[in-house]
Amino acid sequence: MSGPARRQYAAYGTAIVLVLGGCFVARVMNGGEHKDAAKASTRPSAAITPAQYSDLLAEADSAIGTDFRRLDTTDPQTLAGAVPIAAQTMYAQVRKLQAIDPPAAAAATHASLIAELSGFSDMIQRVGTDQATPTCPAASSGPYDALLTSSFADRLRADARVLLTIDKSYLFASFLPSAPDRPTSRPATGTLVAKPSRHGGGELKIANGGPDDTAVSLVPAAGGHPLLTVYVRGGNDTTVRRVGTGTYRIYYESGSDWNPDRAGFMTGCAFNRFDQTYRFRAYPVIDTWSISITPVAGGQASTSGVDPTTFPTG
To answer: What local confidence, expressed as pLDDT, does residue 33 receive?
Structure first.
């Protein structure tokens, strides 16, 4: 997946005794899942009774559950065969729900339910294809977990809870297990979530003026694992000292709900890098680079988006 069109940002540099500096600014791209709108349908003029609506929900829930549970597999061939069947079953139930006029008290939630099921069907259909690239790889360990932790699943569970407050017989979404537990934390600004493999005399100053937390990584220009990764909360600044000698690219991931086990954000992820390289020389020369992750008009330094599945971690 190629990154979005490059953007231009302000840049300047100063030189003092034993110090080289540059200042570059980047924009944090916010990601998020796309919610597809459900197609409009023609409904009969008379609403069905609460008992009929309860039966319809139960039938839809049962039909979806039979095929949805087959997605809980680690075998690629089994998953490939189960995906289209589960998606088509859910599409079929969406059409049935679109074709009825629910009891008035449930009308608003019913419309929301249809929209979420439509979007969830599309997400299932994309599992195992190039379009199914996870927006937050740290959020799940496989396609099934990704479905259970998606925003579509969260909203379906919420709609099901609302239906129960309207009528205790309106049972739905039993096909959808609870989201798996995910460890979350919010490290303090300046925390090295990936500690450096070597030290030197360089300094990297980071200003995060945006609202999202960011993990900034120094990655060797030739590729490989980061030399280090530092956590910077939204609205905070930090300085990393004793940066090891070498030429690096700066990658940065933004979002919320940091997963310490998988070293990544689990919500609202965006992945980017600065296009230029940054050189840190050997002591006694002290190279100091300053970056500011804040949008600035008329900037000159460029950045590019990075495929979440190829973003360097470790």
So the answer is: 41
